[in-house]
Amino acid sequence: AQSVTQLGSHVSVSEGALVLLRCNYSSSVPPYLFWYVQYPNQGLQLLLKYTSAATLVKGINGFEAEFKKSETSFHLTKPSAHMSDAAEYFCAVSRRSFGNEKLTFGTGTRLTIIP
Amino acid sequence: NAGVTQTPKFRILKIGQSMTLQCAQDMNHNYMYWYRQDPGMGLKLIYYSVGAGITDKGEVPNGYNVSRSTTEDFPLRLELAAPSQTSVYFCASSESLLQGDTIYFGEGSWLTVV
After folding, report:
1. Chain B residues with CB inside 8 Å of A99's CB?
2. A28 touching B, CB under 8 A?
3. Which of A27, A111, B19, B106 has a beta carbon 3.0–4.6 Å from A31's, enabling a disulfide?
């Protein structure tokens, strides 16, 4: 079975500070990993995804994530937080032997930006 | 670009009532999904469809039904609404079912059962 754990349901950072949202996965086979963002009252939007190419993945809005197999992690970072980054962020994992119907989402991390 | 469109956006139901959440996509995607989102629980897959006329259960299908008569539309029906079905529902679509393919989400439908 596959699963994903997001450490910290709420994270607050000051504007201009580093954003670090943590995600650890569990999968018996090499996974595909995703970060989605949900702005208030909107659906989820793909930020970035890891599908076995480069381990450092760059996404939209200045976000990036690094796949670390030894740590089973896929943490999301952004060097300098902006007020518009306030949203809920979901990490998700799917096994390469299955399709999107087996995509498993984490419980989400709500990011608050302090002015 | 319309993408995935859901209606209604908000609805209050009484226990035992039925309703249908509508979903339409204009991207000619074969694959469509219905998720529910509960606080602190992430998203759970209710049903999905790989094409017109073909549907399958996801992780939490009980209390719901779907149909897929066209490529564009994928309505979700709630029969005999229960308080446990109070949730935010998201319809989504993707071009393929391949692992790694991007899923596009609608804006959500907030449902309260009282």
Report:
1. 96-99
2. no
3. A27
